């Protein structure tokens, strides 16, 4: 199994004055599949966004594949090696065609093929804001598969099975669990958590091993 | 504006309906320059408008007017060319608000703050320096019928640079205007690109105010973009629609203004406004076609 190891040391995140993540220390081995569960507002999404540098008020250190992030170039590398499926993908402020999202993965052909397998190939010419939540999430999954084909060694998926229908949830869970990368998945879906090697639980910004 | 003998028909008692010989007017050099300036502006400025709509910074025109006035005040107080100071002030203001673009609502709020602080700073500087405020305001207004060679060169440069940037960075721009975070995760250098866009918008808007008058900025820059946003479903399509609407509105509006001997600014704004309204009245057919799925649409990624 390939993939990159992820090491977090005393990671803390704040939203203004409100603490969201408190001194999280976590080691995820290369190729490991980890489910991050917990109540709403417990800090799961913030922690995942911190790995990508999308949450700025972050302290502590996060290494992916042993690499730190100090410069803008290092953050660009981090975002290249860590594919991301956002929670509730935004339909966006400005039209973007369906095909343009997977094409942004770095491996347009592989992402387009993934879109075909996920049943959203015929939505390529439609603007993203005209897609349903489930269709949009499949499109983001196709993009993530393109990122993996382009060389990403980790996938950070934030509630990737929240919007699709039942068949789509099963399909997405199978696809995610079968990827040859390190997987960190924020989920409330027991079936998806069951496919992971470890289940971690967050509560009030703190992390504990649940399984 | 009308030369002797150019008016061909005038209804006695109805001066508003007096019409002019457009052919004779088009032989006048200032009218030819104005027509050329409008054509060049129609290529560059609607594309800037697309960025304004994409970044959700519609108050930028008012903000830049006030920042330009601050620049003029600084110029009058310290000595350099006030018009140049206005352009530099707008460029710096555009660059200064770029960090606020990290959140979706950040830029809109920043424009309001910029507008208030710039006008306060300008009035304070004018009061301290003892310069007549109305004299400073007069430097801000241009007229399409008074454009010179320098203004034509500036518009020509904008007409080349703006579409070139869009062709060169189309993929990055499409992702950035759609949503900043996925764009950043796709390798787009969102910070520098946003900075470049805001400086371009600020300079283009400030330049357009000086070249064509503040009112025409609405017709040339702001109004084509919302109509194009409704007609197109990708950045490429929206940009092409915006330029097409700009060229159509400018040509039709300018000829109408010449024919009726009305001031070009208001006629062009009303023509552009009529086009925007017309587009908003006929959205259903286009919307329906958006929802239609395509058979094999993955082949070309060039949209």
From TrEMBL, chain A:
Residues annotated as signal peptide: none
Gene Ontology, cellular component aspect: plasma membrane
SUPFAM superfamilies noted in UniProt: P-loop containing nucleoside triphosphate hydrolases
One Pfam entry name: ABC_tran
This protein's UniProt keywords: ATP-binding, Nucleotide-binding
InterPro entries registered for this protein in UniProt: AAA+_ATPase, ABC_transporter-like_ATP-bd, ABC_transpr_LolD-like, P-loop_NTPase
Gene3D superfamilies with a match to the protein in the record: P-loop containing nucleotide triphosphate hydrolases
Entries under PROSITE patterns matching the protein: ABC_TRANSPORTER_2
Transmembrane spans: none
GO MF annotation list: ATP binding; ATP hydrolysis activity; transmembrane transporter activity
Residue intervals of the ABC transporter domain: 6-210
rRNA processing among keywords: no
Domain of life assignment: Bacteria
Name of the protein: ABC-type Mn2+/Zn2+ transport system, ATPase component
Source organism of the structure: Streptomyces aidingensis
From TrEMBL, chain B:
Keyword set, alphabetical order: Membrane, Transmembrane, Transmembrane helix, Transport
Membrane topology label: Multi-pass membrane protein
Transmembrane segments: 34-55, 67-95, 107-127, 139-168, 195-217, 238-259, 265-282
GO cellular component, one term: ATP-binding cassette (ABC) transporter complex
Subcellular localization, as worded in the UniProt entry: Cell membrane; Membrane
Main localization (coarse): membrane
Domain of life: Bacteria
Entries under InterPro entries matching the protein: ABC_BtuC-like, ABC_TroCD
Biological process, per Gene Ontology: response to zinc ion; transmembrane transport
SUPFAM superfamilies: ABC transporter involved in vitamin B12 uptake, BtuC (SSF81345)
Keyword Cell division: no
Family stated for the protein in its record: Belongs to the ABC-3 integral membrane protein family.
Protein name (database record): Zinc transport system permease protein
